[in-house]
Write a structure and sequence with these properties.
Order of helices and strands: EEHEEEHHHH
Strand content: 5-15%
Largest sheet: 3 strands, mixed
Structural class: alpha+beta
Number of strands: 5
Helix content: 40-55%
Length: 132
């Protein structure tokens, strides 16, 4: 999914990989969407958007905040890395267990090891729920 709004461009990771593979660069001034070329200035900001539902991200933020006893004035967002929030490997296991309980899902060990951010967890949760 990609969208062009004002001077900001949002492109999902798979689309960005295709753009880089096609253009051979990460610095772009135009992109083709559905056969139509869209141009933007060099000052346009490229951001990769989260594929997870906002409600899932919000609930994961809440669970992470609770599991790590994070103060209310400390921001926890989709981009927050568990390690930067002070989580060690045991904390991460407890977060995953809390997510499994809250979302009624089961996360296999290899998937759990790939979770580094709130966004990673939310995307994985949405995929697991969709596969139910």
């Amino acid at each position: 999914m990609a969208s062009l709004t004002g001077s900001a461009v949002s492109v999902s990771a798979p689309v960005m990989r295709r753009i880089k593979a096609t253009n051979g660069a990460s610095s772009l001034n135009s992109v083709s969407f559905f056969g139509q070329k869209r141009s933007f200035s060099s000052s346009a900001r490229l951001s990769i958007s989260c594929a997870a539902k906002q409600e899932t991200v919000d609930k994961v933020c809440e669970i992470v905040r609770k599991q790590l006893a994070i103060a209310g004035d400390t921001p926890v967002t989709g981009e927050s890395k568990f390690s930067e929030l002070g989580a060690d490997s045991l904390d991460t296991v407890e977060i995953v267990m809390g997510l499994e309980e809250s979302f009624d899902i089961s996360v296999d060990e290899s998937s759990a090891q790939e979770i580094a951010t709130v966004k990673d967890a939310a995307e994985m949760i949405d995929k697991l729920i969709a596969c139910k």
